[in-house]
TrEMBL record:
Catalytic activity: [[Fe-S] cluster scaffold protein carrying a second [4Fe-4S](2+) cluster] + N(6)-octanoyl-L-lysyl-[protein] + 2 oxidized [2Fe-2S]-[ferredoxin] + 2 S-adenosyl-L-methionine + 4 H(+) = [[Fe-S] cluster scaffold protein] + N(6)-[(R)-dihydrolipoyl]-L-lysyl-[protein] + 4 Fe(3+) + 2 hydrogen sulfide + 2 5'-deoxyadenosine + 2 L-methionine + 2 reduced [2Fe-2S]-[ferredoxin]
Protein name: Lipoyl synthase, mitochondrial
Sites where the protein binds [4Fe-4S] cluster 2: 162, 166, 169
EC number(s) stated in the UniProt entry for this protein: 2.8.1.8
Subcellular location: Mitochondrion
Pathway in which the depicted protein is active: Protein modification; protein lipoylation via endogenous pathway; protein N(6)-(lipoyl)lysine from octanoyl-[acyl-carrier-protein]: step 2/2
Superkingdom per UniProt: Eukaryota
Note accompanying the cofactor annotation: Binds 2 [4Fe-4S] clusters per subunit. One cluster is coordinated with 3 cysteines and an exchangeable S-adenosyl-L-methionine.
GO molecular function: 4 iron, 4 sulfur cluster binding; lipoate synthase activity; metal ion binding
SMART domains according to UniProt: Elp3 (SM00729)
Lineage: Eukaryota, Viridiplantae, Streptophyta, Embryophyta, Tracheophyta
Native organism: Zostera marina
NCBIfam families, per the entry: lipA (TIGR00510), PRK05481.1 (NF004019), PRK12928.1 (NF009544)
UniProt-listed GO biological process terms: lipoate biosynthetic process; protein lipoylation
Length: 404
């Protein structure tokens, strides 16, 4: 297997470091306690953050903790340049030099009775899912029920045609898509409740052609769901609404439990990856506004793709700004090219590198972080943990003296 040598700007001394220390050396602007301690990673890629990110009076100082980390890692065997390259990413093949995808990028082929039943129900009600439109690698797991046995699908409202043309996305685009189906909010609520789900994700295409950019349609869908099943937890994965505060407020107050909006990539690659009408500041502002407008206890969430040409320091700098915006949950996944007409994959990030980003995200203070090659913003395993967190928050709130 051929490995791609990354980040040649590292000094000779840095090359001799352990991979985690090299990652730290690339982000000297970050506070030391973000990396202390770097937790060991279990087989799962979704982790709960510490109950508090503040250091107690009895905790060791950040400098001391970082020094302990360096001392511990220095005792491990040093790695060669080739080992370092393979620990972060794998080269993407070309026509002249074809290279098979790494084993961790293999996907399960959709199938089974439950998959067929959900697909039939969606077609009967003229509903669309981002699972199909975006060719999600987890479609088979989520629709078949996976380990939990509960099937789920991420419903895409406002039609299947987007007004924007991001270079990574497989959804159809048009300046004048068909008008929204007025029966869609009712059909969506009917379908989801019939599946017996406890947690659902509602997303949409961008509708720059509409006066309110589809925010009223979004709000109505959430409200109809809550009316039919008040106990259901709803995550709304929304577009940026061009930064319109009125649209954000309308959706944030619709009764949802998780307000999600994806920044998609690091700050430096926004114009390369996303449509020209989207940008990092606008997306961050949307997430900030959601925190202001939504009821207390509503969580915010975002996601980025790796393997688009970003560097580790760009990833960590972006994470820091996202956390400063008050975002609770962040997910990381591998970008996968939907077709030859889409943006090419720059590199395949290894599971070990995803684990490092997860550990650092937890130390930054994100309440939950899901990070892995096959993780997507709407991911069954992640939704399970978010559901547990929301329920725990509400139980604690109802038993507190203030609520009494």
């Amino acid at each position: 297997m051929v490995y791609k040598l990354q980040y040649l700007y590292l000094s000779r001394q840095e090359h001799k470091m352990h991979p985690i220390l090299r990652l730290i050396s690339l982000t000297k602007s970050l506070k030391p306690h973000y990396f202390a301690p770097i937790r060991s990673i279990s087989s799962t890629i979704i982790h709960k953050a510490p109950q508090t990110t503040k250091l107690s009076s009895s905790s060791p100082s950040p400098s001391r903790t970082l020094a302990d980390l360096r001392r511990r890692l220095a005792q491990e065997d040093s790695l060669s340049l080739t080992d370092f390259a393979s620990s972060y990413s794998v080269e993407v093949g070309t026509k002249k030099n074809p290279i098979p995808k790494p084993k961790w990028m293999k996907m399960e082929v959709p199938g089974g009775d439950r998959y067929a039943a959900i697909k039939a129900k969606l077609r009967d009600l003229n509903l669309h899912t981002v699972c199909e439109e975006a060719k999600c690698p987890n479609l088979a797991e989520c629709w078949s029920g996976g380990d939990t046995g509960t099937a789920t699908a991420t419903i895409m409202i406002l039609g299947d045609t987007c007004t924007r043309g991001c270079r990574f996305c497989n959804v159809k685009t048009s300046k004048t898509p068909p008008p929204p189906d007025p029966n869609e909010p009712s059909n969506v609520a009917q379908a989801i409740v019939s599946w017996g789900l406890d947690y659902v994700v509602i997303t949409s295409v961008d509708r720059d052609d509409l006066a309110d950019q589809g925010s009223s349609h979004f709000s109505e869908t959430v409200q109809r769901l809550k009316a039919l099943k008040p106990s259901m937890l709803i995550e709304a994965l929304v577009p940026d609404f061009r930064g319109d505060s009125g649209c954000v407020e309308k959706v944030a107050n619709s009764g949802l439990d998780v307000f999600a909006h994806n920044i998609e990539t690091v700050e430096e690659l926004q114009s390369t990856v996303r449509d020209h009408r989207a940008n990092f500041k606008q997306s961050i502002d949307v997430l900030k506004m959601a925190k202001v407008y939504a009821p207390v206890g509503t969580m915010t969430k975002t996601s980025i793709m790796l393997g688009c040409g970003e560097t580790p320091d760009q990833v960590l700098s972006t994470m820091e700004k996202v956390r400063a915006a008050g975002v609770d949950v962040m997910t990381f996944g591998q970008y996968m090219r939907p077709s030859k007409r889409h943006m090419p994959v720059s590199e395949y990030i290894t599971p070990e590198a995803f684990e490092k980003y997860q550990s650092i995200g937890v130390e930054m203070g994100f309440r939950y972080v899901a990070s892995g090659p096959m993780v997507r913003s709407s991911y069954k395993a992640g939704e399970f943990y978010i559901k547990s967190m929301i329920e725990a928050d509400r139980a604690a709130s109802s038993s507190s003296p203030a609520s009494a």
